[in-house]
Design a protein that fits this description.
This protein has about 110 residues and is of the alpha+beta class. It is built from 3 helices and 5 strands; from the N terminus they run H-E-E-E-H-E-E-H. A 5-stranded antiparallel sheet has the order 3-2-1-4-5. A hairpin with a 5-residue loop joins strand 1 (about 20-25) and strand 2 (about 30-35).
Length: about 110
């Protein structure tokens, strides 16, 4: 069950459901990246998590400012894991985090 604060915030804006992280693809390498405390990282666990609307709006603004480094960026809902970390809330993000489901390139 979600705390009442999360429910109230989810209903107050057009943002995806909280908590959120920012993701996209690195413009040069194409790697999947997440917005962390020190900039963009390829490590999912290092992503900054927005648990309130104000922080989510800051992430949203950071995405707009990063358009020369990252493409296809967006906010994505995450779930809180048992150890307090974040886990993808949707199977699409779980696949993006772990890599393709089919072999390609040299691995094919």
């Amino acid at each position: 069950m979600k705390p009442e604060l999360y429910v109230a915030l989810e209903n107050s804006s057009k943002l995806p459901k909280l908590p959120l992280i920012a993701t996209g693809n690195d413009l040069r390498s194409g790697a999947i990246v997440y917005l962390g405390a020190s900039g963009w990282t390829t490590v999912f666990a290092e992503a900054l998590m927005a648990t309130d609307e104000a922080t989510a709006r800051r992430l949203e603004a950071d995405l707009a400012a990063a358009e020369h480094d990252v493409i296809g960026s967006y906010l994505v809902t995450v779930a809180l894991g048992a150890g307090g970390g974040t886990e993808p809330a949707h199977y699409r993000e779980a696949i993006r985090r772990t890599g393709p489901t089919v072999a390609y390139g040299d691995a094919a």
